Amino acid sequence: MPVSASVRKQLSLKLSSIPCKFSTSPNNCYFSVLSCSIPSTNTSENEQELENEIEPPISVEIFRTGPKLGSYKLGDSTFYSLIENYAKSCDLMSLEKVLEQMKREQRVVIEKNIIVVFKAYGKAHLPDKAVELFDRMVSEFQCRRTVRSLNSVLNVLIQEGLYYRAMEFHSSVVGCKNILPNVLTFNLIIKAMCRLGLVDRAIETFREMPTKKCMPDVFTYCTLMDGLCKKDRIDEAVLLLDEMQIEGCFPSPITFNVLINGLCKKGDLARAAKLVDNMFLKGCVPNEVTYNTLIHGLCLKGKLNKAISLLDRMVLNKCVPNHVTYGTVINGLVKQGRALDGARVLISMEERGYCANEYVYSALVSGLFKMGKSNEALSMWKGMIEKGCKPNTVLYSALIDGLCRQGNPDEAKEILSEMERMGCTPNAFTYNSLMRGFFKTGNSHKAILMWKEMENSNCIHNEVSYSVLIHGLCDDGNLKVAMMVWKDMLCRGCKPDAVAYSSIIHCLCNAGSVDQGLKLFNEMLCGESDSQPDVVTYNILFNALCKQNNISHAINLLNSMMDQGCDPDMVTCNIFLKTLKERLDPPQHGGEFLDELVLRLYKRQRIVGASRILEVMLQKFLLPKASTWERVVRALLKPRKIGASINKCWNDLFI
Question: According to the model, what pLDDT value does residue 528 have?
């Protein structure tokens, strides 16, 4: 039946607002709107803007009025197109309406389209909807379920972190609905088990795969290796590398990266380096992840020079370092007190076209201030601004902390005002730095004002905030107010740290309340607090007890300190040397006392602590016994390295 002129005109008007392309069949006159792009004869700015806009490929109005336009009928492909486009735009309400209409009209629903809906539910974080739709596939849409649907729903559940739910769903479907799993199914279930820490169960599932006629692929091995490494079962993970090659499954760079990452976290850099050599032998070229992992491992071990050498090797191997690589090296250098070297790496980074992020700049600015290089830190800040890097809370806080360390809290306070004007909200670290800075310069009043301003800004006081305030008040000798703050902290559920305890104990001891200080100390030891006493806490009590001539109690406390794994330092030695000289009759020079302390530490294999006391003895001209000296020196030095160094010196002299 020919289409009338009025209908053609109506259709033309409908299509003029939304460009689309028609696909017609002369046999049954079905039409399907597939895309929305038709050439335009006018090239005005308004039309160009319309062409650039993203619009749905099919108009809902055309979809609804299509059957009324003569003999045209809505084909199944029209519904499929709508499903895909609603899913892409995450319009779930419209998507469900289309599915309901298809059900009412008894349209053919294919699994491919249902899988598209599963993915849409996954993007919308609606795993329950995906499971519900899976259950409705056969009963409501007469759509046959296969392993593809099973895998799609499993993936949605796992992406949402619902690992137990994924395992339950898998068991119910495979056990009752007669869907045979494939390799992807096993990979997803093994991933869920490994994420839950059920590695032994994952291994059992892995061993079942051949019996189900599913051979593990490289992703199966990688997932299982990663799970083993996270459980610190790295040797088993390395054995899997050999097994997969025997089974004819060749490792990928990802496989090696998983193992290298596990070894680096364990600190076994030698085996990690051997794996890199093995990569080359297997034809796998190390990528950015490989180098980044190794560099991070070297930085964690403090081997920054090797990390920088590896960075150079990375460039030589035509593997371009990225901002993660540079950031790792710079952060490692800053932690070792080599912020100037970190600044040089930053220059190299920028020369290669990478822009440092706020964390790199904050680490460098903070590191330079800690080294006393305030001019360099401020210069870096100005250079960062000139390069167009907009400071955020992290960067402003680093600058404020640095200025306070430098002894300029008033200047830091001005930066705080600028920070707030720029829309950056100060955090607890920002306020803690300012309080610490004002206390350090003897301006307690301004420090307390910062505490109040922090409260007015709805910034919650944390343990560090209380610790800074208590420490500052105790340094001012204001025990009464410090104790009030202490009680307020406990009432609010904040647990005191070692600094807060040490400050209060010191203040109590100075006020003559040594017994009360010992009571707080025993609270720390008995586990009522997560904080354990450090050498500073012990030294405060040693000094207080020795001043009271309670030397036996001080020595008992020293024995307890060593039993707790805390080594004495120079302050400890000086306290006891002074006491032995001034408070004993006859006075003792303390050489035998320190020599005995060295031997006790040596017997407990705490060689570094023993060597520090030896240094104190030499500085005080208290010669250790020859046997003591020999034992500690032998334990410190590695004969092979010493021998190699001596041989090198001889070679340099005579060759």
Answer: 60
Average pLDDT over residues 59-73: 50
pTM of the model: 0.64
Task: Report which secondary-structure segment, H or E, holds 24.
Answer: strand 22-24
Indicate the length of the chain as a whole number: 655
Rounded Cα distance between 146 and 215, Å, is 19
> Which is more confident, 437 or 328?
437
Return d(Cα 20, Cα 522) in angstroms, integer. 80
To the nearest 10°, the Cα dihedral for 513, 514, 515, 517?
90
Task: Give the residue, 204 or 51, on which the prediction is more confident.
Answer: 204
Q: Which amino acid is at 47?
A: E
Per-residue exposure over 143-171, b if at least 16 CB sit within 10 Å of its own CB, e if not: bebebbbbbbbbbbbbebebbebbbebbe
Q: Which is nearest to 198 in space by CA: 155, 163, 174, 154?
A: 163
Residue 633 has pLDDT above 70, yes or no: yes
Pair 319, 286: CB distance under 8 Å:
yes
User: For residue 30, what are the β-bridge partners?
Assistant: 73
- Give the DSSP H/E element, type plus range, for residue 30: strand 30-33
- The Cα angle at residue 365 between residues 361 and 366, in degrees rounded to 5: 115
CB 599 within 8 A of CB 629: no
Distance between CA 405 and CA 374 in Å, rounded? Answer: 10
* Cβ–Cβ under 8 Å, residues 257 and 279: no
Query: Six-digit token pair at 142?
Result: 């007469």
Q: What percent of the chain has pLDDT over 70?
A: 85
Q: Taking the alpha carbons of 143, 148, 154, 155 in that order, is the dihedral positive or negative?
A: negative
Q: What is the mean pLDDT of residues 577-606?
A: 90
Using the Cα atoms of residue 459, residue 463, residue 464 and residue 465 in order, give the sign of their dihedral: positive
For the stretch 490-518, pLDDT in tens is 898 888 889 999 999 999 999 899 999 99
pLDDT in tens, 158-183: 999 999 999 999 998 887 767 889 99
Tell me how far apart the alpha carbons of residues 82 and 91 are, in angstroms, rounded to a whole number: 11
Output the six-digit token pair for 638. 């590695």
Mean pLDDT score, 601-627: 90
From 482, 508, 510, select the one nearest 496 (Cα to Cα): 482
Mean of pLDDT over the chain? 82
pLDDT score, position 5 = 46
Tell me how far apart the terminal alpha carbons of the chain are, to the nearest angstrom. Answer: 106
What's the rounded Cα separation, in Å, for the pair 450 and 186?
A: 57
- For residue 273, what are its two tokens? 């380096």
d(CA 180, CA 214): 10
Q: Which of 286, 334, 331 is nearest to 310 (CA)?
A: 286
Q: What are phi and psi of 535, to 5 degrees?
A: -65, -30
